Amino acid sequence: MIPGYLDTELIYNIVDENIADRILSIPIANSRMEDTLVWKHEGSEVYIVKSGYRALATSVDLPTALCSNEEDYENFYKSLWPLNIPEKIKIHVWKLFNNLLPHSSNLVKRMLAVESVCPLCRVELEDSSHLMWSCGVLKCVWSHLQVQIPVLEESWCSKKRLAHTFSTADEQQRYTIAISLWSLWYRRNKLIHEGIRFSLQEVLGFIRGYIKEINMLQRTFQPLARPGLKESWRPPDEGIIKLNFDATYKSDEKLATTAVIARDSTGIIRGAETYLFEQ
User: Fold this and answer.
1) Which of 45, 167, 168, 204 could be 38's S-S partner, Cβ–Cβ 3.0 to 4.6 Å?
2) So where are the chain's domains?
3) Cross-referenced Pfam families, in alphabetical order (predicted)?
């Protein structure tokens, strides 16, 4: 058929007169440009996996009734933001939590046909639900750090389980959960992008050292109960960086952890690091 020409007789033979009239009323471009595929869910009109996942998750009718309690999620946020931990950790946990779908993520993964195995446990497919709740390595870390998991309903989704566990935990446990989620993500990226071997003992030592460092900072900056007592930490002169360090040793595991923190004359933390030593 000649470009720009419609076979009127064929159209009337295929569809009824009303639809045929509507088809024939469509203006036809005079140019001979080829059709181009575009992705309507992105301003760039280019398909990306994140956009495809988001579009599918919002358009598919998935079971959400069992995980629609917004009060649990509100309590999660109220428990996260007041924590006295670096903002980068809170923001990381917040982003991962927001990416958790309040339904069965397995259904979405099957529909997307994504085959990305978790690089840490190498057992299940990796998604936000797996990274924040069901990963075997995460469970192992929480077990070693004695994170208490409350009694949960079997019908609850991962998002509601995490929200309830976090909001009902005490402050020290919240530190542990948040820092462990951030640490495992950091180690995951090191493994994928730099090929650095993952070590469970190293991660445990890092998390313990980080928590000890935070507790040390809280004691340092805690207001003095009695007037007249000298402060345990004094800022250095302007332009000078002051280093403080502490160490802990667990005889049963034969592990020693050293934490170092660097602060300037205003008390702002300029750097911090933990070191793990094994016998």
Assistant:
1) 45
2) 67-198, 210-221+232-278
3) zf-RVT
pLDDT at 49 over 90: no
> How far is CA 70 from each of CA 6, 92, 171, 278, rounded to the nearest angstrom?
55, 20, 22, 45
H or E stretch at 250: strand 242-250
Judge whether residue 101 has pLDDT over 60. Answer: no
What is the torsional sign of CA 80, 81, 82, 87? positive
Residue carrying structure tokens 């595929």:
37
Residues 205, 189: Cα–Cα separation, whole Å: 18
Give SS3 for 269.
strand
Helix (H) or strand (E) holding 274: strand 269-278
Instruction: Say how far apart CA 206 and CA 179 lie, in whole Å.
Output: 10
Burial of 244 (0-12, 13-18, 19+ CB in 10 A): middle
**Nearby residues of 167 by Cβ (< 8 Å), 6 or more positions away:** 72, 75, 76, 78, 79
